[in-house]
Amino acid sequence: VHHVQVATPELLARLKAMDVGVQCGSWRWVSGTPTAAGSPFRMVQDSGIQNGIHMDGVHIAPLSPWPAIYYAVTGVNALGVLINDGQQISRQEAIRLYTRENAWHLSREHELGSIEIGKLGDLIVLDRDVFTVPAEELRRTLPVLTVVGGTVVYDGGVL
């Protein structure tokens, strides 16, 4: 189930019992207000249901995941307003949901989402330590090196 904006613990328990996963959309990062907040990231994560995070539009053009991760971690929208208080998750949770856990939603967890023997080894090197920088800097995270299928496809010349 995608675009989970409204959920209850009871609904999540029913979906989990049916082996259904949910995707929390981060689109409210752009349009959310205190009365139209966003995905219940914390509630979904705490329910134990298979879940991930996505941001719409990647079928149109590549999008950076960092504004969505920033929003999931802080609850703050693009205007700097706290709109999703109480639903924040940790940086580690957000990054895992955006990567490893999303592989399950693609039915490709056997080949994507984590670096393990037998899986595709695509990776990026970032320009900052996303686990320690101030939250505001998460939105500005950029790749400095990208490797796909063992081939460097982007080299920012930083390393």
Q: Tell me the number of helical segments per DSSP (H or I, 4 or more residues long).
A: 7
**Overall mean pLDDT score?**
88
- Biggest sheet descriptor: 3 strands, antiparallel
Neighbour order of strands in the largest sheet:
3-4-5
Q: Using DSSP, what is the number of strands?
A: 5
Quaternary structure annotation: single chain
String of helices and strands: HEHHEHHHEHEE
Account of the 3D structure:
The chain is an alpha+beta fold and 159 residues long. The chain is 30% helix and 14% strand. The chain contains 7 helices and 5 strands, in the order αβααβαααβαββ. It has helices at residues 9-17, 28-31, 41-47, 66-74, 91-98, 100-105, 135-138, and strands at residues 22-25, 51-54, 123-126, 143-148, 151-155. The strands form 2 sheets. The protein has a 3-stranded antiparallel sheet with strand order 3-4-5, with no helix packed on it. Helix 4 (66-74) crosses helix 5. The protein starts with 8 loop residues before the first helix and ends with a strand.
